[in-house]
């Protein structure tokens, strides 16, 4: 596949790029500053800003699938997720690209029955604005005609991948609160070919 990854310079984005290349895909890493990444065999680095629809449309054209691993530097989104949705969806529709996989968070679902009490408090206070913008992103995308999957990991860690994580649609696996970022990256790359979670929200936790 010809895959484009937005947010490719971030922790999750870099892991996705690595796993996608290992799986044999041709990858375009879309970043605001191309100097942060180096091109390699089957890896193209392209300049794009998800707040700039024209730059998004230019790099999406000719791809088979889009992956979004964007994220702000801090706890506040400042509209980053919803702005990205408003740029990516029209770009895909105008260029004929249908498959979209987006990383959001298990915190998106306010009434998740398996959230720990401390996490509910965190989600409704310090992370409220961030998760609210993620919810808006999901709403914009889900109301479109694109073939979307919302990957909702619990807290990402740099632990070695185990492949022992659990997945539930739209709900955090009971007792789960973290997952290695490499496991999430591998899940996303497998979904490119497996296509098991179309228009679903798989939630990942150990």
What is the topology?
Layout: E1 2-6, H1 11-22, E2 26-31, E3 43-47, H2 53-60, E4 65-68, H3 80-95, E5 99-103, H4 117-124, H5 128-142, E6 147-153, E7 155-157, E8 166-169, E9 178-180, H6 181-194, E10 202-205
Helix pairs in contact: 1-6, 2-3, 3-5
Q: What is the average per-residue confidence, as pLDDT, rounded to a whole number?
A: 96
What are the secondary-structure elements, in order, as H or E?
EHEEHEHEHHEEEEHE
Q: Main β-sheet: number of strands, strand sense, barrel status?
A: 8 strands, mixed
Binned, the helix content reads: 25-40%
N-C termini distance: 29 Å
- % residues in beta strands: 15-25%
Count of runs of 4 or more consecutive helical residues: 6
Q: Gyration radius, to the nearest Å?
A: 16 Å
Quantity of strands, as a count = 10
Question: How would you characterize this protein structure?
Answer:
The chain is 35% helix and 22% strand. It has six helices and ten strands, in the order βαββαβαβααββββαβ. It has helices spanning 11-22, 53-60, 80-95, 117-124, 128-142, 181-194, and strands spanning 2-6, 26-31, 43-47, 65-68, 99-103, 147-153, 155-157, 166-169, 178-180, 202-205. The protein has an eight-stranded mixed beta sheet, sandwiched between helices. Strands 7-9 form a two-stranded parallel ribbon. The longest helix has 16 residues, at 80-95.
